[in-house]
Amino acid sequence: xxxxxxxxxxxxxxxxxxxxxxxxxxxxxxxxxxxxxxxxxxxxxxxxxxxxxxxxxxxxxxxxxxxxxxxxxxxxxxxxxxxxxxxxxxxxxxxxxxxxxxxxxxxxxxxxxxxxxxxxxxxxxxxxxxxxxxxxxxxxxxxxxxxxxxxxxxxxxxxxxxxxxxxxxxxxxxxxxxxxxxxxxxxxxxxxxxxxxxxxxxxxxxxxxxxxxxxxxxxxxxxxxxxxxxxxxxxxxxxxxxxxxxxxxxxxxxxxxxxxxxxxxxxxxxxxxxxxxxxxxxxxxxxx
Length: 288
Hints:
Layout: E1 2-4, E2 9-11, H1 30-42, H2 54-67, E3 75-77, H3 79-82, H4 85-93, E4 98-102, E5 107-110, E6 136-137, H5 138-145, E7 151-157, E8 169-181, E9 197-202, E10 212-216, H6 224-231, H7 234-247, H8 258-280
Parallel strand pairs: 3-4
Antiparallel strand pairs: 1-2, 4-10, 5-6, 5-8, 7-8, 8-9, 9-10
């Protein structure tokens, strides 16, 4: 879990993901379970540490850092989390806004779609409201709107400059549509309607179709530039994570113990925080 701004990011919490093969309770037979338990004992993995989906671990970390008194901020994540409807709903339940990457095969209804209730014939259970048309995948929704519905946005200035782009501006076309994501696990209102949110898509010039998609619960009146800026802020985390992994040794851990891994990531995170602070602190004059 990283905290990020335009100029820096820092790892603030960690969880070690245990695959199903490291959880003896999920083993297929007693012999396999016994082997898993032996591996866990060698690594000193506590009994309460079990296989848990990554998106659930992310919610656990959000609950933990909220308990530290950190202010609530929008949550940004890749499609591995954004595609999990349970993760998106978990953020909503916690009162957290988000900008989450999703795959174009995810489905939604247009914001203008309304549930209808069929006439009751007097026999059996009364009909409930439902959408008359099936949901559409996100790619189709954006392609139907067309590239003309997009606007060009400069979200930041990078380090790659050229004669044609002397300021290194990063610019692309984006479309923002209001949609109602569809999934059986998403709670509906009493009238049968699904909650509304933003669908953001990047459609670069010259590309035959959009390349990236996000769902967001940021306010209806947010500026497109601000929405894009948050969707793209993962570049900051990915940039700093490379330093954390390679330059500060996060990727150098070769141990096989639960405690050892936690000590290693803690020290690497502290080193990153110190380096970040030094970069932002004016240099003190050297003593004579």
